[in-house]
Design a protein that fits this description.
Blueprint (H helix, E strand, L loop, with lengths): L1 E9 L2 E10 L2 E9 L9 H35 L2 E2 L11 E2 L2 H25 L12 H9 L1 H24 L3 H17 L4
Antiparallel strand pairs: 1-2, 2-3, 4-5
Helix pairs in contact: 1-2, 2-3, 2-4, 4-5
Length: about 190
């Protein structure tokens, strides 16, 4: 007699069952447990997945475009990293790609903040907006100061990185700025 655990999917969820087999012939199917999840389908989770994918997609697209723009602008602005003994590359490379990444984070977040602010000011919400998200609009606006303090700290670090690209700063001031930014965020309530 041989026992096997089998996972199978039905329209109602995932179930676990054991098959009791003798040689090649299965004689019975005995459920070990009821369905792992007896919950119904949640459309708000589908919307949340769509929202996360849209935010990621927008950020990726903005980063991609702005990084390409920085590759084009870097030589005009003198942001070129020349080969040296401690460098891996053998040809000049454009600097400033962090600006493209910064834009890919800040622009979608700023657009989302403006959208939530606009939606919260409407007397009647649009029909396309899922009702499950409405209770979260006020919470998103309450946390916006924390979001922008984190973005401000990241902006300060990005500016320092760009200054390092231009002037080749020593490590001590860079470490000092990073330390004070971390301490400032901690005392500002970021956990």
């Amino acid at each position: 007699l041989e026992f096997r655990r089998v996972l199978f999917r039905s329209g109602q969820g995932v179930s676990i069952a054991a098959t009791c087999c003798e040689s090649a012939t299965c004689q019975s199917l005995v459920p070990i447990r009821a369905r792992l999840s007896n919950q119904r389908h949640h459309p708000e989770l589908d919307f949340m997945f769509f929202l996360i994918a849209a935010c990621f997609g927008c950020g990726f697209l903005v980063s991609l475009v702005m990084t390409r723009v920085m590759i084009w602008l870097s030589p005009k602005w003198g942001l070129i990293d020349q080969p040296a003994a401690r460098k891996v590359h053998t040809t000049p490379k454009p600097l400033g790609g962090g600006i493209g990444i910064w834009c890919g984070v800040v622009i979608p977040l700023a657009c989302a903040h403006l959208a939530v602010w606009w939606l919260s000011r409407q007397s009647e919400l649009p029909q396309w907006l899922p009702r499950e998200i409405v209770p979260h609009l006020s919470g998103a606006l309450e946390r916006v100061s924390l979001l922008w303090s984190i973005i401000g700290a990241g902006t300060l670090l990005s500016i320092m990185g760009l200054a390092d690209d231009v002037a080749d700063l020593p490590w001590q001031p860079r470490l000092g700025v990073q330390f004070f930014v971390a301490v400032g965020l901690t005392f500002g309530g970021v956990k």
